[in-house]
């Protein structure tokens, strides 16, 4: 198994893409700390934990709101305590929010909240966790195709994802040199999860038509292989990269 006995932190591991990544990592032998915030997600987080434990791996739940500036320290402390370890091998910064906001109805409060969760939290997590990563540590950012793709209602979200990708490149340089850590990002295209559950059938059809590979909606398993690879030893010479995982949706 490619992640045998690695300790991984997956933010937003209670649902959607994060839950799929957490389980895929456990299948590859990792122990996983699942970070989430909402009391309403406790049951699904417990289910993910149980599924990981059924694979013979350890899992812990860390319920904390990543909007808090000090969230990195909380996740660090709880992970080290929960696994009785001094090191963390893999950080998947996946938790994120998306709310539609038309350019001419710019919402400053939404801007601040989106930036806090999608940009500041990853920075806080990296600041706290990178120092306890052994050489060969891995940072995987789940960003978005929206970082490079324009939509009339995505100004804020797109800006947050472009920003986190820019930070990821800087981490690749700063932490690569000092700690031997790689940092890479995945830009997912459209995956049906709770974040976009309100999208119309018409829009889903549009996403199906945009793809170069097959006329279907993506499944979380279409992304987990890449997330495993970027966390594994096999990706050791790849850093500062952003890989789009969208079935070729942005090819035109
Ligand atoms: N699905 C897509 O089509 C798509 C496309 C491109 C990029 N992405 C990105 O992929 C990532 C995962 O998205 P998803 O589709 O899986 O979304 P999702 O199903 O809505 O899950 C979001 C996850 O993030 C967590 N989260 C949100 N705000 C948080 C906070 N303040 N503190 C702690 N945890 C928080 C949620 O925790 P709770 O359960 O506690 O709320 C949940 O686990 C996001 O960064 C998203 O931008 C998704």
Secondary-structure element order, N to C: EHEHEHEHEHEHHE
The name of the CATH architecture is: 3-Layer(aba) Sandwich
Major β-sheet annotation? 7 strands, parallel
At the first level of CATH, the class is Alpha Beta
Model regions low in confidence, pLDDT < 50 over at least 5 residues: none
Q: Compute the number of helices.
A: 7
CATH superfamily: NAD(P)-binding Rossmann-like Domain
Total beta strand runs: 7
Query: Biggest sheet, strands in spatial order?
Result: 3-2-1-4-5-6-7
Helix residue percentage: 40-55%
Shape: globular
InterPro entries: NAD(P)-bd_dom_sf, Sc_DH/Rdtase_CS, SDR_fam
Family: Belongs to the short-chain dehydrogenases/reductases (SDR) family.
Keywords: NADP, Oxidoreductase
GO molecular function, one term: oxidoreductase activity, acting on CH-OH group of donors
Task: Explain what this protein looks like in three dimensions.
With 252 residues, the protein is an alpha/beta fold. The protein has a single domain, classed as Rossmann fold (3-Layer(aba) Sandwich). The protein contains seven helices and seven strands, in the order βαβαβαβαβαβααβ. Strands 3-2-1-4-5-6-7 form a seven-stranded parallel sheet, with helices on both faces. α1 crosses α7 and α3 crosses α4. The termini are far apart. Bound molecules: NADP nicotinamide-adenine-dinucleotide phosphate. The site of NADP nicotinamide-adenine-dinucleotide phosphate has 29 residues, from α1. Keywords: NADP, Oxidoreductase.
């Amino acid at each position: 198994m490619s992640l045998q006995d690695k300790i991984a932190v997956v933010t937003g591991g209670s649902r959607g893409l994060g839950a799929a990544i957490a389980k895929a990592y456990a299948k590859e032998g990792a122990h996983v700390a699942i970070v989430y915030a909402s009391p309403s997600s406790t049951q699904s987080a417990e289910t993910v934990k149980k599924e990981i434990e059924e694979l013979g791996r350890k899992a812990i739940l860390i319920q904390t709101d990543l909007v808090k500036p000090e969230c990195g320290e909380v996740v660090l402390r709880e992970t080290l305590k929960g696994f009785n370890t001094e090191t963390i091998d893999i950080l998947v910064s996946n938790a994120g929010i998306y709310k539609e906001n038309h350019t001419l109805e710019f919402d400053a409060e939404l801007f601040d909240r989106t930036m806090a969760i999608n940009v500041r939290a990853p920075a806080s997590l990296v600041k706290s966790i990178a120092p306890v990563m052994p050489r060969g540590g891995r940072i995987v950012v789940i960003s978005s195709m929206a970082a490079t793709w324009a939509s009339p209602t995505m100004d804020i979200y797109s800006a947050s994802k472009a920003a986190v990708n820019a930070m990821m490149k800087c981490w690749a340089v700063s932490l690569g040199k000092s700690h031997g850590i790689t940092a890479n990002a995945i830009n997912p295209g459209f995956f049906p999860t709770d974040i976009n559950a309100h999208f119309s059938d018409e829009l889903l059809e549009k996403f199906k038509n945009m793809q170069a590979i097959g006329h279907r909606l993506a499944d979380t398993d279409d992304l987990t292989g890449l997330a495993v690879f970027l966390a594994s030893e096999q990706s050791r010479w790849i850093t500062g990269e952003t890989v789009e995982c969208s079935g070729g949706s942005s090819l035109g």
